[in-house]
Write a structure and sequence with these properties.
Strand content: 25-35%
Order of helices and strands: EEEHEEEHHEEEEHEEHEEEHEHEE
Helix content: 10-25%
CATH topology of the largest domain: Fumarylacetoacetate hydrolase, domain 2
Number of domains: 2
CATH superfamily of the largest domain: Fumarylacetoacetase-like, C-terminal domain
CATH architecture of the largest domain: Alpha-Beta Complex
CATH class of the largest domain: Alpha Beta
Number of helices: 7
């Protein structure tokens, strides 16, 4: 099953992609409501939509006639860093040598990014002013309802049951802004939170069972092209942890709920320019610029394509003031 959100003639639609058409949920439900019902509820809704199609073709719109939106309005977005090869390449650019910290192997690591700047497939990116604009090719898991959802400290088995489906994720990055922020031992922040693309749709988890290996890794081919040139290609199964273990870790003394999005982190072997810059010891290939087209594809899902637009300027902010560290207020004279 493929689940999407779209606009057509000024109206937002939400429903299933069936062949080359989109069909709204039979009861006017939203994607969020379908996620809250879980895979079984989605199967029931899909059956009603197929019946509706058999009764009347007018219920469907051609996929080519609609403008796709991000397939989910995220409750939250966690982004992991789970590809060892990506860490090796990026560290070569940051530290001057390829290095993976021993702590990386101990447990998955993630950060929270901005759910309010999610972009749609085909939407033009307006980045901040940056000299090092980059993409990141990722697979993202979408959480749905299951008996264990919302509980803390899930096992990997329970975590697998709450994965509703998957979509492609592009974590746009301004590497110069990110580098400054990370020197403060916090972030990333403004180097990342201006745009994340999700799409083109959610493909339910049951569609991927044929790709699972014996350890539960998804053997899906992932590729990214810039202006038609292949820059990165990898198998999702090169992750250090399979997705259920990432979800289980996210739930430790915490919770995951329907609508949460968990990114795999950038794939290796050219999943982002930052990795290639580290390996090439220079800005080769060059950073993204206005007009560049970034096209991502992941087997079993489809293509996610976006163009880089003009950067957005922002009001200047002064640097931090050096303060006296005075501990008590100075008394003001009264009249």
């Amino acid at each position: 099953m493929r689940i999407a959100r779209w606009t057509h003639n000024g109206h937002i639609g939400q429903g299933f992609v069936v062949d080359d058409r989109v069909v709204g949920f039979a009861d006017g439900e939203s994607v969020s409501e379908i996620l809250a019902r879980g895979l079984e509820g989605a199967r029931e809704a899909h059956g009603r939509v197929l019946h509706q199609l058999r009764e009347s073709e007018t219920a469907a719109l051609l996929l080519a006639d609609v403008e796709l939106l991000a397939p989910v309005v995220p409750a939250s977005i966690r982004d992991f860093v789970s590809f060892e090869e990506h860490v090796e390449g990026v560290s070569a650019g940051v530290e001057g040598k390829s290095h993976v910290a021993p702590e990386w192997y101990e447990a998955p690591t993630f950060y929270f990014t901005n759910p309010h700047t999610v972009h749609a497939p085909g939407q033009q990116l307006r980045p901040p002013v940056t000299e090092r604009l980059d993409f990141e090719l990722e697979l993202a898991a979408i959480i749905g309802a299951a008996p264990a959802v919302g509980e803390s400290n899930l096992t990997a088995t329970d975590a697998a049951s709450v994965i509703f489906g998957y979509t492609i994720m592009n974590d746009w990055s301004a590497r110069d802004l990110q580098a400054r922020e990370m020197q403060v031992r916090l972030g990333p922040a403004k180097g990342k939170d201006f745009g994340t693309v999700l799409g083109p749709w959610i493909v339910t988890a049951d569609e991927f069972e044929q790709y699972l290996d014996e350890e539960g890794f998804l053997q899906l081919r992932a590729e990214v092209r810039v202006n038609g040139e292949l820059l990165g290609e990898d198998l999702i199964s090169n992750m250090g942890w399979p997705f259920p273990e990432l979800v289980a870790y996210a739930s430790r003394t915490s919770r995951v709920i329907p609508g949460d999005v968990l990114g795999s982190g950038t794939v290796g072997n050219g999943g982002c320019l930052g990795e290639l810059w580290g390996r090439n010891q220079g800005l080769i290939p060059p950073p993204l610029k206005e007009g560049d087209v970034v096209a991502m594809s992941i087997e079993g899902i489809g293509d996610l394509i976006n163009r880089v637009g003009a950067p957005q300027g922002a009001p200047e902010l002064p640097p931090a003031r050096r303060r006296t560290r005075q501990r008590h207020r100075t008394r003001r004279a009264t009249a």
